[in-house]
Amino acid sequence: MDHKRNETELLQAKLRxxxxxxxxxxxxxxxxxxxxxxxCQDFLKWEPGSCLLWGGYEDAERRMAGFFPDYMEPxxxxxPIAALTLGFRQEDRPGHRDFLGSFMGLxxxxxxxxxxxxxxxxxxxxxxxxxxxxxLDNIRKIGRVGVKITEGYEAPLPVIRTYRAISGVVASNRLxxxxxxxxxxxxxxxxxxxxAGLAALNHREVLDTDRRIEEGDVLSxxxxxxxxxxxxxxxxxKGRLTVKCRKYE
Length: 249
Prior knowledge:
Strand content: 25-35%
Helix content: 25-40%
Number of strands: 15
């Protein structure tokens, strides 16, 4: 818990620094993961500032936080983000861990790299602009797989995620009820998972078992995956609630 508190305090300090710096010029932080981005949004509810989250394309998971002076309109084009394409043989097809491991092996910090989108014979990766030249000059292999790296990308982008449909019935839209359904466990055990800090709602930790879930919410359960709640209802003839979700694969 102390480690998590220290991470939160460090991120908040960086956000304050960006807010101060953005009074004179645009300032950018990240790439942030989804939890950090949610923390940034919560922070800005109490600290006034002009901010935009952007990861290089619509629906990016890892995004930079851009802070802008009052005289500037926040816009994606202002972000120092470069897209790179890494081509490889279709039969090789390295995975996400292979790409990230190779990047980290070169001493690249995690927050320099945004989403890594892997297709059948190429990967598109978003990086901070100041690291673009380093990637171009140093990336020749991903693990044991040879790659050819070029600037930019050709649309459409590779699909970042796939889903598996999950449905069932629950007593209500409480967090412990949904957790029990998605983890295929008892409501009592699900409640224990929530109070132990294993559940996050919309990328924010939740400890209240009776928190109400809404359609469109994203529920993450440590050790079990991440889920989107697509629909709640209608009620069955016995008064139970039908639920349809999708699990990130």
